[in-house]
């Protein structure tokens, strides 16, 4: 538990530093595809940018003004941890989909408020976070327990 708190605190510090201009140049991200499979049988493909490094994770979707409906950003964490994020310098509302190690959705925070400093946390340890346009999870019927299919997660 203490280790998870320390990892979360470290990531928050990285995010704070990013908000204070420590990113001298914008990071670039590799892209990939993933699919969300719902319990009701829906299969929804997304084109995602992958945030893997601390600098990429700190930047995330900051300063973006738009995002395609089928786009998103996947944060791939180096190890299981409780994840906390915020919306500082993020201009579009986002749904944050917190994903366990096997690709199961742990919880979803819908419509995160642009530029809010409120902390948004996973409801347990996760291996990744998918950010998609705000309201998309509700529109597609995506819920906790549904599955994200991507190589970052060990599918069972």
User: Structural class, from secondary structure content?
Assistant: alpha+beta
Average pLDDT reading = 88
Strand content: 35-45%
Shape: globular
Percent helix: 10-25%
Could you spell the SSE succession in H and E letters? Answer: HEEHEEEEHE
The main pleated sheet reads as: 7 strands, mixed
**DSSP E strands, number:** 7
Report strand order across the widest sheet.
5-4-6-3-2-1-7
What gap, in angstroms, lies between the N and C termini?
26 Å
The number of helical elements comes to 3
As residue ranges, the low-confidence spans are 1-23
- Radius of gyration, rounded? 14 Å
Question: What's the quick description here?
Answer:
The chain is built from 3 helices and 7 strands; from the N terminus they run H-E-E-H-E-E-E-E-H-E. It has 156 residues and is of the alpha+beta class.
